[in-house]
Amino acid sequence: MKCGGLDAEQLARRSVPPSTLSLLGLIRHLAQVENHWFQRVLQGKTDRPRLFKRDDDEDADFNGAVADPAVVEEAFAAWKAEIAAADKWLDALDEDDLGRDVPFDDDIVSVRDVLVHVIEEYARHAGHADLLRECIDGRTGQ
């Protein structure tokens, strides 16, 4: 909703220099979050390339959020595809699977812990999106 009706320039507009935060950057970042947690961590698909990340630029999801309609289209398509893939995988789980542990770096996380983390990530960035949209055109609320 916070991105509705905005053009590529508005979506890519940075908040306050030197921050690279933008609505388009958030969409790219959230696509990467979905991919990382649901594909790479929970399903172990680490052979796939990371979305919007590069070894030479850990903030490529934000730095690559440029005012180009093709970049906007790619970001939204990737985000929606990652959500659909996560939903499909989650729909196949039963309640017992939520407590299942999976290795993550040098630790162990449960599916439930990952779900809580992703909810927290979205909540945090929803607040950022509110402020970013207000800076663009003054729109507030839902």
Gist of the model:
The protein is mainly α and about 140 residues long. It has 5 helices and 2 strands, in the order ααααββα.
Roughly how much helix do the residues carry, as a percent range? 40-55%
Distance between the termini: 7 Å
Under CATH, the homologous superfamily reads dinb family like domain
Overall tally of domains: 1
Which architecture per CATH? Up-down Bundle
- The best one-word shape is globular
Order of helices and strands: HHHHEEH
Task: Label the structural class.
Answer: mainly alpha
In the CATH scheme, the class would be Mainly Alpha
Question: Whole-number radius of gyration?
Answer: 16 Å
List how many beta strands DSSP finds: 2
Mean of all residue-level pLDDT scores: 93
Number of helices: 5
Strand line-up across the major sheet = 1-2
Our estimate of the beta-strand percent is 5-15%
Query: Would you tell me which CATH topology applies?
Result: Four Helix Bundle (Hemerythrin (Met), subunit A)
Largest sheet: 2 strands, antiparallel
Low-confidence stretches: none
Pfam family, one: MST
Protein name: Damage-inducible protein DinB
InterPro entries: DinB/YfiT-like, MST-like
Structure description:
InterPro entries: DinB/YfiT-like, MST-like. This is Damage-inducible protein DinB. It comes from Micromonospora purpureochromogenes. With 142 residues, the chain is mainly alpha-helical. The chain has one domain (8-137): dinb family like domain (Four Helix Bundle (Hemerythrin (Met), subunit A), Up-down Bundle). Helices cover 55% and strands 6% of the residues. The protein contains 5 helices and 2 strands; from the N terminus they run ααααββα. It has helices at residues 8-12, 23-41, 60-63, 69-91, 111-137; strands at residues 101-104, 107-110. A two-stranded antiparallel sheet has the order 1-2. A hairpin with a 2-residue loop joins β1 and β2 (107-110). The radius of gyration is 16 Å and the shape is globular. The model has no long low-confidence stretch (mean pLDDT 93).
